[in-house]
Each structure stands twice: as structure tokens, then as C-alpha cells.
Write a structure and sequence with these properties.
The chain is an alpha+beta fold. Helices cover about 40% and strands about 10% of the residues. It has a three-stranded mixed sheet.
């Protein structure tokens, strides 16, 4: 899960409604390498305002079973979810360029969890 690594910089300079934010998420998804997204199976991308606890500390979340943890997974399973938290991401960005970068990093981070890459390895790779 992407954390609030910039929590000390809390501000809301960028204001985007849910529809405009989702459009940015789709644009950033389209920018990801095909080999990263083509392997995603039974995964949906969701934008929510905030995590269930109401905090702004979490930027994104992978909710599901990583490929490395799947045993008998197949037809009829509920899809895994990659959730991006709109208000959390907006709160740490000064402008749209920074917001795009944070959305991109958050998407890569959460997709990596789908592939079984843990937070420690993501930190090593610079995607945390």
C-alpha cells in the first residue's frame, strides 16, 4: 500500500472533482507499460475519496490476492481492487504535474502488490 510519505506537506492546492480525478487516473494507466498492465487479471481500478478510517495517510491500496499467493483462483472470483484515494493524493500535491506523478507512482506501487512485490522491495526500487 502506498503510504503518506509526504504527510508533513499536507496542503490542498489542487482541486479536482471525482470525475476529473478519475480521468487523470485513466490517463496515467494508459501511460504504464503494456507488459505491466496486460498481466492484470480480474482486477478493477477504483477511486474513493478517503480510506475507511477517514484519514489522509493512505494514498492507495491493493485489495486482493497477489499472484504469488493464489492457489485455486479463477472463474467466479470477485475481482481484486486497486484503490486510489483522491483526497489523500490531492492533499500532498501542489499542482497537476505533481498529482500526475503521485498517481503514477501509486498505480505502479499497487500493481506491484498484485504481482507479489512487497513494500520493502518497492522501497529498494524507489516505488514506495
Amino acid at each position: 500500500m502506498a503510504d503518506g510519505r509526504n504527510a508533513h506537506r499536507r496542503r490542498r492546492i489542487v482541486e479536482l472533482d471525482a470525475e476529473a480525478f478519475e480521468a487523470l487516473v485513466v490517463e496515467e494507466l494508459d501511460q504504464l507499460p503494456d507488459d505491466m498492465v496486460d498481466g492484470l487479471e480480474n482486477v478493477v481500478f477504483v477511486v474513493e475519496d478517503r480510506p475507511e478510517d477517514g484519514s489522509l495517510d493512505l494514498l492507495g491500496l491493493y485489495d486482493g490476492f497477489a499472484l504469488t499467493e493464489r492457489d485455486r483462483y479463477g472463474f467466479g472470483e470477485m475481482p481484486d481492487r486497486i484503490i486510489l484515494y483522491r483526497e489523500s493524493l490531492l492533499a500532498i500535491c501542489e499542482d497537476e504535474g505533481e498529482l500526475r506523478d503521485e498517481i503514477h507512482v501509486t498505480l505502479v506501487h499497487e500493481i506491484a502488490h498484485f504481482y507479489g512485490i512487497d513494500d520493502d522491495r518497492l522501497h529498494e526500487l524507489g516505488w514506495a
